[in-house]
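Internal ticket - ligand job 693, calcium ion:
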Amino acid sequence: MKRLLLTGTAAAILATPVIAGEIDPDLRRIILKTSDNEVLSTLVFLNDQVNIAQMNAAMNQAKVNLRERHRLVVTSLQEKAGLTQGDLIAHLTDLKDAGRISDFHPYWLSNAIRVDATRGEIVQLAGRQDVLRVYFNYPIETVAPMGAPVAVEQGGNGGLDNPEPGLVAIRAPEVWTEFGVMGNGVLTSTLDTGVDGNHPALASRWAGVADSRYAGHPEWAWFDPVTNTTFPTAFGSHGTHTMGTVCGGAPGDEIGVAPGATWIHAAVIDRVSIQRTVADALLAFEWLVDPDGDPNTNWDVPAVCSNSWRLVTGHGYPPCDETFWTHLDACEAAGTLITFSAGNEGFSGLGRPSDRATDEYRTFSVAAVDANQQGWPIASFSSRGPTNCTPNGQPAIKPDISGPGVNVRSALPGNSYGNLSGTSMASPHINGVVCLMREVNPDLSVDDIKQIMYDTAFDLGDPGEDNNYGYGMVDAYEAVVAAISGDIPMRLRAASWTAGVETDLEVFRATPGSNVAFIYSIQGTGSTYVPQLDVTVDLASPRLAGIETADQDGYALHHMLVPFGSEGTHVWMQAAEFQRKSNVVDQPVEYRLTLEVSRWLAGVRGDAEVFGATPGATVAFLASFDGTGSTFIPQFNVTVDLLNPVTAGTRVADQNGYALLRQLIPTELQGRHVWMQAVEQRSKSNLVEQDIE
Ligand SMILES: [Ca+2]
Ligand SMILES: [Ca+2]
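stdout (structure tokens):
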């Protein structure tokens, strides 16, 4: 067992009994490396938090409009903070007056207080009854673009006649011309490095000048807690470029997806030498969710906020950290869709909070593709999934959606334009598509907008959702068409298909109370009319897995035992109800047993390993020198894919379903070709085929 040796004081501090709250494990590690007098910035979360998930579900069910959502969420959060923070604030005020802590700041978006203090004071605060947990207040930073901006001429590209390749790829110009929809009347936002408010692509649509309701209140449209400016200013080129992609458009040079939208901005990221932290971002989200400070108005609340920054491991920020999640959930419940760039770390993984996959919709994470190339290949730098930040720790697919992010031309401070690459450039494209959707359907909920984007995305890479592209390239045209109709398709989700194992088929957004048929095909896709349901499904020779009745939320679940016989092939699944059908899910049928065999060298010991067996079951390792075929093995009640199989050996699978056969390969087998398969009761593995060397 590993033993952690602690120096005297640190050990004594962490040995202090914690009565109610606790210190986050990462803060504990930091405390151990901190001296007694050093001031640490922390976020103290109170015990009593609004249950946003429950509130959001109730509002979804009641189809509460955005204005009412905004009011309910903001007032609930503010009331919670007001009712529960009094004692702690009084205590912190005393501590500050006595010189025992440096500073503190209360929040309401999450029921939390930033406290800057020495480790001794922090540990004591964590012990309070009203404290849930104390976190380190980590630094944050932009997803730095790949390389410096490459200046390009204004008007040399772009415009309605010659739009940017990225805009064409996501079909934004088709939305502009066919529907006249450009995001007019929609308010958008970003949290970034500031924006050049004089840039011709953006100046006229800064909400502070575009909308008379802001007269005398620039602070409702521009948030700068660092230097308290009152007019949009660029503190780096990043924020001007990303906002340009959202809604930029000097007349005749529309560089943005939604060049009719107005914008507000919080300049809280990478303020040059001033390090920004989670607490600053929390302050910005608190502003964003109600800029005019009046919960009864929601004209001031942006439809969407794209974030081209993240919390990184380089700063010690741990994977899957949930510190940040509550603020984002509150913003989304109040009606503002939040997107994050996946990150520019390629296969080394996703940034935080892009790595979160606690459900289908959070955190909405954006990959970058090269829209200048045919087939829109994934950018090499685009952070790949999967993630393990899931409720059960099992891997989940990330990111969620793709947008153009290679050599994207947009605005740069000082009336110029330039190309940048990065997932930072992809996320604003998604922001712009949300603006277009909200223009045609202002009350679409955040979850519905994301679902429509998933359903209408142009699939790239491996069929279906994948760890490079998510659901694929966002399709502004199809997304707007779906938003106009408001008909959000029924959605089928299928767990993995493993022969001989029970699987779950889930349907969302069925008609409440209707009969949902779960169907599958092992013959591929086609077009088959189903008279009982009066619907034409997209499957060839469909088979019925079962019928379930959708509940009041339109949810239906079917458990089925995946039949043997199609292992190693594909299955296509679809759900249908009267006159409606779901998406098609296309999956490989997996083997329950996986066989792995080392190289066979005559005269040398060879290993054959089986994974995924039933613990305690007898596993037979079969070999055939006659090739593949179809042979029924009565003892195991299974038909194997071998001709004239011989049993190389049997083993009992251990508690992890693992079995190993280690055998000397007879020298006389040299030069032969062998096919191998493993079987247990009613289950067989993949085939392994090799030459014996
Ligand atoms: Ca308001
Ligand atoms: Ca795909």
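Auto-summary: Residues 1-19 have pLDDT under 50 and may be disordered. The first strand starts at residue 22 and ends at 23.
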